[in-house]
Specification:
Helices cover 52% and strands 6% of the residues. It has 20 helices and 9 strands. Strands 4-6-7 form a 3-stranded antiparallel β-sheet. A two-stranded parallel ribbon has the order 1-2. Strands 3-5 form a two-stranded antiparallel ribbon. It is elongated and about 100 Å long.
Length: 554
């Protein structure tokens, strides 16, 4: 299916559009209204400001940073702009993921479309042509402090756009010199930068924003998957449902908490597994149980469960804040996506235009939002891991075999290391979620005396989300195994509609381990890919309906 063309006008870009451009190769175009406005602004600049009589305008006809009072002669402005790209290409580290680079390019185009940057239309068209042809700059991921924007990553992007001989791009599955890729794509191998072009290209926390938009989108999808994995564990442990009732939620009516509880009720609708009669059934995994008694009620009956542990009972109270944090973060990012973030900015005034220096390049909004997202996702992964730990522990799993071993314990080890994978990733997330936005050191000769650290904050949060996807995958694998092991004894007590759909979707990807131990690495990777791309959650929701309101998670 062809992805619709996305029109960039500087005001209406949304996260789904960015994801489509970054991951699905959606084609991009500049809105006609934005093209006309950019052309008119540029005509005024070239007619009125490229002369010796023009006032000093920062980074337009002056140097940058400590050189802000150094006037640049009109005939040297183009040289100065090209020099900015070369001098700011100070990145290091592994390459940014291609999807993040594509998102960054699209976000920069949309910022220009707001018509406060004064770039030439040719620059915007060049970036659009690169996106549509699939020419993606190779950009080092480290080196930005997120203060005067993400200078180093954006300079590396700009160098590739210009076709500088040092620049490399990914094109048609290969890494090659940028100019060579443009020639293969039928584009001019090089393009120059003129007044204000490079200044606008390298300013703004746009690498930070690209990481952030994709991480927030993935985190929203992750919350859906984590709620599904929780219900699988709940039914595998034959948990109590009364704590999720609407009347209980109304007694402390946080919206996120109520929405999560409603999603749980929807997933377990029709369940007989989470009932007292089902909890009375003896499972064949119970230590010391006569196999002949498996599937029969306990004699004498067990005392009622009354209430479950926090990792089951308190899920609305833990997942709910994540949902509300995502809504807050999405609001921040939606504003950032449709903002002009370079410096200085240009505004219509009287019969012409004015140029004004400001600080919209500073990434603190993004940095703080990403700190919050890292904390929320880390806690989400932690509660998932605690449920996984209960599933493999015979002291806590209500008759399931230790480590969820189907047969020959001792020869087979089962899922103990699968579970500890989740714990290890939670520990890594705990170490990663310290506040990046509160870490500030002056830079560039003290001209940037407060920095946001936004690029690290967002890049780090992407890792936290990826780790959490694996933790949720672990819970799904363990809970599905537990359901398979108990099914012969509990067939008379079916699971809920949503739970059944999730169980079936997992088994469509990986089989149950009902004999000897399997090579679990590939099982984890396959299922995690379905968690990450949302296809497993989509299969569940196609069976039981959307889990969230329009305001909630996707």
């Amino acid at each position: 299916m062809t992805t619709p063309e996305i029109i960039l006008d500087g005001a209406h870009l949304c996260a789904d559009d960015v994801v489509a451009i970054a991951r699905s190769g959606a084609q991009v175009a500049l809105a006609d209204s934005a093209r006309a406005a950019l052309g008119a602004t540029r005509e005024y600049i070239e007619t009125n400001w490229l002369n010796d009589a023009a006032p000093l305008m920062y980074a337009f006809n002056t140097g940058v940073g400590a050189l802000k009072s150094q006037r640049i002669a009109p005939d040297e402005i183009a040289t100065f702009q090209a020099s900015l790209v070369r001098s700011h290409s100070a990145g290091t580290g592994e390459p940014m993921p291609q999807e993040v680079v594509r998102a960054m390019m699209a976000l920069r185009v949309n910022a220009f479309a707001s018509n406060h940057s004064g770039v030439r239309v040719a620059i915007v068209d060049r970036l659009i042509a690169m996106l549509n042809a699939g020419i993606t700059p190779v950009i080092a991921s480290k080196g930005s402090v997120g203060a005067s924007g993400d200078l180093a990553p954006l300079a590396l992007m700009s160098g590739a756009m210009m076709g500088l001989p040092q620049s490399r791009v990914a094109y048609r599955g290969e890494v090659m010199p940028a100019a060579r890729a443009f020639e293969l794509a039928g584009l001019a191998p090089t393009i120059d930068v003129q007044a204000k072009d490079a200044t606008a290209l390298i300013n703004g926390a746009t690498a930070s924003l690209a990481y952030a938009v994709l991480a927030a989108s993935d985190a929203r999808q992750l919350l859906t998957s984590a709620t599904i994995s929780m219900v699988l564990s709940l039914e595998a442990l034959r948990g109590e449902l009364s704590c999720f009732e609407a009347r209980v939620m109304q007694a402390r009516p946080h919206r996120g908490q109520r929405d999560v509880a409603a999603a749980i009720r929807q997933l377990v609708a029709g369940s007989l597994r989470c009932t007292e009669p089902a909890r009375q059934i003896r499972l064949r995994g119970t230590p010391g149980l006569d196999p002949a008694l498996a599937g029969t009620p306990h004699e004498p009956p067990l005392a009622p469960r009354i209430q479950d542990v926090y990792s089951l009972r308190c899920v609305p109270q833990v997942h709910g804040p994540v949902l509300e944090a995502l809504d807050y973060i999405d609001g921040i990012l939606a504003t950032e996506m449709n903002s002009a973030t370079d410096n200085p900015l240009i505004f219509p005034e009287d019969e012409g235009y004015a140029i004004v220096s400001g600080g919209h390049f500073h990434g603190q909004y993004i940095a703080q939002a990403m700190d919050l997202l890292a904390l929320a996702v880390t806690d989400l992964s932690a509660i998932c891991d605690r449920r996984s730990a209960r599933l493999v522990d015979p002291a806590c799993n209500f008759g399931l075999p230790g480590n969820l071993i189907a047969e020959r314990p001792g020869i087979n080890t089962g899922f103990s290391v699968v579970q500890s994978l989740g714990t290890g990733l939670v520990l890594e997330n705990v170490g990663l979620c310290g506040p990046a936005s509160a870490t500030s050191l002056p830079a560039k000769g003290n001209t940037e005396d407060h920095i946001s650290n936004s690029c690290f904050a967002a890049r780090r949060t992407r890792t936290v989300v990826e780790n959490a996807q694996a933790v949720v995958t672990v819970e799904m694998l363990l809970a599905a195994q537990a359901l398979d092991l108990a099914e012969p004894d509990l067939r008379a007590y079916p699971v809920g509609q949503g739970t059944a759909a999730a169980w079936s979707a997992i088994r469509a990807v990986v089989p149950a381990m009902l004999g000897d131990d399997r090579w679990v690495h590939d099982d984890i990777a396959l299922l995690q890919s379905r968690v990450a791309d949302g296809s497993l959650a989509a299969a569940v929701q196609s069976a039981c309906g959307p889990l969230w309101s329009a305001q909630g998670a996707a």
